[in-house]
Specification:
Blueprint (H helix, E strand, L loop, with lengths): L4 E6 L3 E2 L5 E11 L37 E7 L2 E9 L1 E6 L4 E5 L3 E5 L4 E6 L9 E11 L10 E5 L6 E5 L5 E8 L24 E7 L4 E4 L8 E8 L2 E4 L2 E4 L2 E5 L5 E5 L4 E8 L7 E3 L2 E3 L2 H14 L19 E4 L5 E4 L3
Amino acid sequence: MDDPVIETAPLGAQWPTVDPFLFCAHHDDAYPAGNGRNGPAASLDGRAIGQDFAGIDGWNMYHGSTVPGFPQHPHRGFETITFVRRGLVDHADSLGAAARYGRGDVQWMTAGWGIVHSEMFPLVDETGPNHLQLFQIWLNLPARDKLVEPHFTMMWDDRIPRLEAADRAGARTTVTVIAGPLAGLAPPDPPPSSWAAAPEADVALWHVRMDPGAEWELPPAEGAQTLRTLYLFAGEELHIGESTIGGSTAARVRCDGPIVLRAGPGETELMVLQGRPIGEPVAQHGPFVMNDRDGIRQAFVDYQQSGFGGWPWDRPDPVHTDAQGRFARHADGRVERVPVG
């Protein structure tokens, strides 16, 4: 087989992606203990509050002023997939829906016609650090679905399947199967209008953790037009067939046949994103993703006129109470609850 690595790129704050994905942001913040009000028990002096991305002391307030995170902001024309490995996220939106999720959970939100939401990171532990690690992936929508009704789906940690594999030496690989079937494991369904819900889209999103030196065979994709990218975000190196990439590197790879992956000397973690391209023009301006500039202009007009349904909360950065635990209250009133831990 030819070299499986087609091209590589360094990872930055926003990872480079290919159609149908728009980008992936990796947030990894070593927050200190909480102050009892969901904010950090630390001075905020020297931070550009409202626009804090400097990583001072290993963490950011982002657009938050008292609680870290992203207060109310609009989206139209695409989807966000938020995989929270550590810490918690408090969601609130213009539909009146709310959620507290994290510690392995995934929220998959179709913005569609338009939604305003906030994503705050409550620091609930007042006695020790509050490590937050999450990945937010923007997945495009085809023109036919850009103006569908907004919708979000919660994928709770204990309902997301994981593949456990061991190589001949006993070194283990664990794959969290968020989207796309793998080795007979079927993840929860994405939202109904997602590109990932289309049978021909061949969308997959897997998190892979490998023991030092572990080997695991990445299976081929189903579709001939599918594109696949590996993102090595933890570990010194990854052997991809006969090629090797260094840490903090993205590698677009062939997916028409199996590829043996071998971890470097330390624990290795990577994300795998794959999908068939939508193959349509993309026009993006901040939180709006359409097919042309006219679509972007109309998004601004609609947002200015309607507020995408308005904001039913008494503050731009709502946080929820610890007594609610991890939960989701959907726009139709349906409530899901899971244990806090």
